[in-house]
């Protein structure tokens, strides 16, 4: 069952990702990206990372993409007009992407240690929120505080940047 | 107190005095003079203690450069019979000159500069005397040159004095270049630079190597001791104050060249080719300078050429390769009587209100009797009057020349005839006859502070050559000072005859003349050597400098410096076109670069 | 049973799609969205390594903490980036990337 779940959600994720790149209307792109993130969250759940999966939906799909939609609506972006196709740039982009995929497949299949099956957990009953919480507040409490400061700075920065200049 | 400490203190005290004078005594004239005189007296005491201590030692100070067994330059003092005797000479004359300067420089400007320069010179000269290796002697050699530059250029506002100082330094540098090559050569051949080591390895070198090394080191002597062809600076150095001329350019500094030769005497004696060159240059200088002295009208100029001539005698004595004591003996006596002659000339100049042309003097023996007496003592000693110090040393050199090298003998004898001639010319024009100018009529004797050193110097000028002193100051360990065996008696008569002939001829020609009866252009223009050098420097060196300038401007600057800068600029200019302003182009470059990196990492691993 | 290689290839493909979006699309907003896709792909491979690299049956949660931080930072980055895009739109009245080329030689 895990295999079926994996293939289903992985295909969904990639398909919606490709449609983000191909669709013309920015709202459609945003919506496809939301779906892609939800599929990604499902993949996280299959990996027993339930906390991360929920956070992905809450933060990414729920906050970040909503922000994107707000901005698209604020700027009132329509379907972008199609201009003359820049052949060189397109070819270059396609080349880089295909090169990357080739390398990826080569590297991943070359190492036999990547072919291991899913190893069983020692005690799968404990919810991983508790374990993540313990790691976060025991080992990583300083980065945690710094992240808080970072969010504060980002908030202040956003407010400053989006002010209309007072003349 | 330990003798090594005394040696180091003797060396350092004048330097400390010079530093103090420089820093503290700009306006306080008596303090400046007092510090300098005090340092010279301390040096005098230290030198005599070292001399009478009769301990030969090599006091190592520290290893200045130490790069392993083959290349180490120590900094140490060598106290051995030769250096002890030279130390006594320098340390005994210096205080007398310093005290004389008190009177001579009383009204001059730059008082503190003068005494600081003298103290610095004393330090450098002591360094030369006590150095135990070639590099250290070279360092102090240059320091002495610097002090000479400072002191010759004391009246630097006068163009002639500034030019003379520059010329002295540059001509010495030419000789020092050969000296440096000699040091390198000797080091390459013997892998050491201390005198004790190289003197004992004289037999290890090939004949050619030995000759080349000694001749190169002799170049330093040619420069410092004003031998032909680098003699041109010494007459011009008379632009400095007279006590400077007496101390530096008569008694001690110019004698340093001869001292160097005696320090490497085993090498010189082992190389007949080098000795031949040395002895001929000495003899030519002795005779040529004697001729040039006849055509001089400046009281100090005559004495300058006389110094050059006597230095030629010393160098010839060294070149005879008989013993290291032979040139040193003449150096010893010459220091005293030449210093005496210069100081009395200074007394005369001061009495004549700084008039130096002998044709404006005359009849001074009545106006300045004490100076006259001192001068006569020095003049007779120089001319080789039997019984005075000069005759002992000069005749000894000529006697050995008769024994070993007859051609040199006749050249030296000719010089020995010229010496009394020009000295008697000077004496009769300056002191005898009637006054030729107002200054001469109103000349007065110098104060006691100047006359006392004169008399103190007259004593060794008369007696330094007597056998008693000879044996004290020149023990057998330095070298033999005996007359050569089987010296025919007529040789001694030749010496006496030269002396009498010179004096008689001079008195005949120069009995109270109004102007010089002997006007030989060749002599008054110094054999035109100065003019030849001027032309050579302006044209040959100037032309070479122009070629170098062209090369520097077009090749080194144009191609290398600016060319490389332009190449980089051009490269930057081309790379500028990568900044297209298109975001996605940058993303493309970025992605392609990452791919390349992954490829390299993947294939390398 | 999906192997680690499967998850890694899935993550890599998502990353490649995001990279393609950055290089091929002309609208700033869509480029930004593709950027977020690339970040999420990295998160996926981190979580996969965390799950597959067990020590004595226990996961090392450091990778998941890192994912937590990445999500946080990505959120902050999106906020600030969109604020900048808004200012840019107010100044230039365009979101087309080819029009924003004043920083050239």
Structure description:
The complex is a heterotrimer of chains A (167), B (605) and C (105). Chain A is mainly alpha-helical. Chain A is built from six helices and no strands. The longest helix of chain A is centred in the middle third of the chain and has 26 residues, at 50-75. Chain B is mostly helical and 605 residues long. Chain B is built from 26 helices and two strands. Chain B has helices at residues 3-24, 29-53, 81-104, 111-130, 134-152, 159-190, 195-200, 207-224, 233-236, 242-251, 255-263, 265-269, 272-294, 299-319, 325-351, 364-367, 369-383, 389-404, 406-430, 438-441, 448-463, 467-473, 489-509, 521-524, 529-575, 583-604, and strands spanning 57-66, 72-79. In chain B, a hairpin with a 5-residue loop joins β1 (57-66) and β2. Chain B is globular. The model of chain B has no long low-confidence stretch (mean pLDDT 86). Chain C has one domain: Helix Hairpins (Orthogonal Bundle), CATH 1.10.287.3510. Helices cover 73% and strands 0% of the residues of chain C. The N and C termini of chain C lie far apart (54 Å). The mean pLDDT of chain C is 90. The chains are: A mainly alpha (167), B mainly alpha (605), C mainly alpha (105). At the A-C interface, α1, α2, α3, α4 and α5 of A face α1, α2 and α3 of C.
Chart the SSEs and their pairings:
The complex is a heterotrimer of chains A (167), B (605) and C (105).
Chain A: H1 2-22, H2 26-46, H3 50-75, H4 87-110, H5 128-138, H6 141-161
Helix pairs in contact in A: 1-2, 2-3
Chain B: H1 3-24, H2 29-53, E1 57-66, E2 72-79, H3 81-104, H4 111-130, H5 134-152, H6 159-190, H7 195-200, H8 207-224, H9 233-236, H10 242-251, H11 255-263, H12 265-269, H13 272-294, H14 299-319, H15 325-351, H16 364-367, H17 369-383, H18 389-404, H19 406-430, H20 438-441, H21 448-463, H22 467-473, H23 489-509, H24 521-524, H25 529-575, H26 583-604
Antiparallel strand pairs in B: 1-2
Helix pairs in contact in B: 1-2, 1-4, 2-3, 2-4, 3-4, 3-10, 3-15, 3-21, 4-5, 5-6, 6-8, 8-11, 8-13, 10-15, 11-14, 11-15, 13-14, 13-19, 14-15, 14-18, 14-19, 15-17, 15-18, 15-21, 17-19, 17-21, 18-19, 19-23
Chain C: H1 4-24, H2 28-52, H3 62-92
Helix pairs in contact in C: 1-2, 2-3
């Amino acid at each position: 069952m895990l295999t079926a779940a994996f293939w289903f959600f992985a295909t969904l994720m990639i398909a919606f990702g490709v449609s983000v790149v191909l669709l013309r209307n920015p709202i459609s792109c945003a919506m496809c990206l939301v779906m892609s993130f939800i599929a990604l969250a499902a993949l996280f759940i299959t990996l027993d990372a339930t906390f991360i999966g929920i956070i992905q939906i809450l933060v990414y799909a729920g906050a970040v993409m909503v922000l994107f939609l707000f901005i698209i609506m604020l700027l009132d972006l329509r379907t972008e007009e199609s201009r003359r196709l820049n052949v060189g740039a397109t070819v270059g982009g396609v080349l880089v992407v295909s090169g990357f995929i080739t390398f990826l497949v080569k590297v991943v299949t070359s190492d036999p240690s990547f072919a291991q099956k899913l190893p069983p957990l020692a005690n799968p009953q404990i919810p991983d929120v508790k374990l993540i919480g313990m790691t976060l507040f025991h080992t990583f409490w300083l980065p945690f505080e710094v992240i808080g400061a970072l969010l504060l700075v980002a908030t202040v920065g956003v407010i400053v940047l989006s002010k209309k200049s007072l003349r | 107190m330990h003798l090594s400490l005394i040696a180091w203190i003797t060396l350092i005290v004048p330097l400390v005095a010079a530093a103090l004078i420089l820093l503290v005594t700009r306006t306080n004239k008596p303090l400046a003079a007092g510090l300098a005189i005090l340092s010279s007296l301390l040096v005098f005491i230290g030198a005599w203690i070292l001399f009478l201590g009769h301990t030969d030692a090599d006091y190592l100070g520290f290893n200045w450069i130490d790069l392993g067994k083959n290349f180490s330059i120590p900094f140490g003092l060598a106290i051995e019979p030769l250096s002890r005797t030279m130390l006594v000479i320098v340390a005994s004359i210096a205080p007398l000159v310093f005290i004389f300067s008190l009177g001579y420089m009383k009204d001059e400007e730059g008082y503190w500069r003068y005494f600081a320069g003298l103290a610095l010179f004393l330090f450098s000269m002591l360094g030369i005397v006590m150095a135990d290796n070639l590099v250290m002697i070279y360092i102090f050699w240059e320091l002495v040159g610097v002090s000479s530059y400072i002191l010759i250029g004391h009246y630097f506002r006068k163009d002639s004095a500034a030019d003379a100082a520059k010329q002295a330094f540059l001509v010495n540098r030419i000789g020092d270049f050969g000296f440096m090559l000699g040091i390198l050569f000797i080091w390459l051949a013997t892998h050491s630079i201390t005198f004790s080591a190289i003197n004992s390895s004289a037999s290890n070198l090939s004949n050619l190597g030995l000759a080349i090394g000694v001749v190169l080191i002799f170049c330093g002597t040619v420069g410092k001791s004003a031998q032909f062809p680098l003699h041109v600076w010494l007459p011009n150095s008379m632009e400095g104050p007279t006590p400077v001329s007496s101390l530096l350019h008569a008694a001690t500094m110019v004698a340093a060249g001869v001292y160097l030769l005696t320090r490497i005497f085993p090498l010189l004696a082992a190389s007949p080719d080098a000795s031949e060159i040395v002895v001929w240059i000495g003899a030519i200088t002795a005779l040529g300078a004697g001729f040039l002295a006849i055509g001089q009208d400046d009281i100090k100029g005559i004495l300058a050429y006389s110094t050059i001539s006597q230095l030629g005698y010393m160098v010839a004595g060294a070149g005879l390769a008989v013993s290291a004591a032979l040139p040193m003996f003449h150096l010893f006596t010459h220091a005293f009587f030449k210093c005496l002659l210069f100081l009395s000339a200074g007394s005369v100049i001061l009495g004549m209100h700084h008039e130096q042309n002998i044709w404006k003097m005359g009849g001074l023996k009545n106006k300045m009797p004490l100076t006259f007496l001192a001068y006569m003592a020095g003049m007779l000693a120089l001319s080789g009057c039997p019984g005075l110090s000069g005759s002992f040393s000069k005749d000894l050199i000529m006697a050995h020349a008769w024994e070993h090298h007859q051609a040199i003998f006749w050249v030296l004898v000719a010089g020995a005839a010229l010496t009394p001639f020009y000295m008697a010319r000077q004496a009769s024009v300056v002191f005898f006859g009637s006054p030729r100018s107002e200054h001469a009529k109103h000349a007065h004797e110098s104060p006691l502070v100047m006359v006392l050193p004169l008399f103190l110097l007259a004593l060794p000028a008369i007696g330094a050559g007597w056998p008693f002193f000879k044996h004290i100051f020149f023990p057998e360990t330095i070298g033999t000072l005996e007359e050569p065996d089987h010296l025919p008696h007529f040789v001694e008569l030749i010496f006496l005859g030269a002396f009498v002939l010179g004096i008689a001829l001079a008195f005949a020609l120069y009995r109270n003349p109004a102007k010089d009866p002997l006007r030989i252009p060749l002599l008054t223009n110094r054999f035109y050597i100065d003019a030849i050098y001027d032309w050579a420097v302006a044209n040959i060196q100037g032309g070479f400098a122009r070629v170098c300038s062209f090369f520097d401007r077009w090749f080194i600057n144009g191609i290398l410096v600016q060319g490389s800068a332009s190449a980089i600029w051009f490269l930057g200019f081309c790379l500028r076109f990568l900044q297209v302003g298109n975001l996605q182009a940058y993303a493309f470059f970025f992605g392609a670069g990452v791919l390349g990196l992954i490829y390299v990492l993947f294939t390398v691993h | 049973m999906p192997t680690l290689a499967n998850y890694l290839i899935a993550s890599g493909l998502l990353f490649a799609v995001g990279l393609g979006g950055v290089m091929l699309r002309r609208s700033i907003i869509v480029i930004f969205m593709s950027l977020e896709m690339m970040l999420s792909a990295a998160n996926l491979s981190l979580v996969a390594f965390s799950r597959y690299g067990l020590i004595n049956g226990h996961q090392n949660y450091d990778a998941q903490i890192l994912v937590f931080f990445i999500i946080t930072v990505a959120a902050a980055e999106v906020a600030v980036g969109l604020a900048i895009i808004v200012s840019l739109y107010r100044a230039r009245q365009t979101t087309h990337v080819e029009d924003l080329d004043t920083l050239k030689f």
